[in-house]
# Entry
Amino acid sequence: MYATQQDLVTRYGESELETYAFDDDLDQIDTARVDQALQDASNFIDAYLAAQMTVPVDPAPDILTRLCAEIARYRLQDDQPLDEARKRYEDAVALLKDIARGTASLDPSGATAASTTVHAMRDADDRTFTRESLDDF
# Structure
């Protein structure tokens, strides 16, 4: 997972988790529900990132923690998400689409991802040195 329950608490406060993920029977935050929302958000992110890189991304950059938290927060709010949460979710999805298209990067420094593979294509006709070209030597 790209984010944890503590990441949600740090970003949005414990009171928000109590509002959207409180289990009255247990009289506490439903950690299983929060973990499921975070796992679903991580899988959602991986579905986009897989177009450009090997997933899951490890180590994950901070932006993935933020995106995961925003997606999980939106999903925890169920049928009546806050306008702010909806906007952040939509922005997160837009960024993931840009990354999948290759118009945005997880690495703002522009360094090449570790999973990048370069392929060289050769065939018999592109040989520089052949028996014929070396006849005079």
About this structure: The two ends are 63 Å apart (CA to CA). The first helix runs from residue 5 to 12.
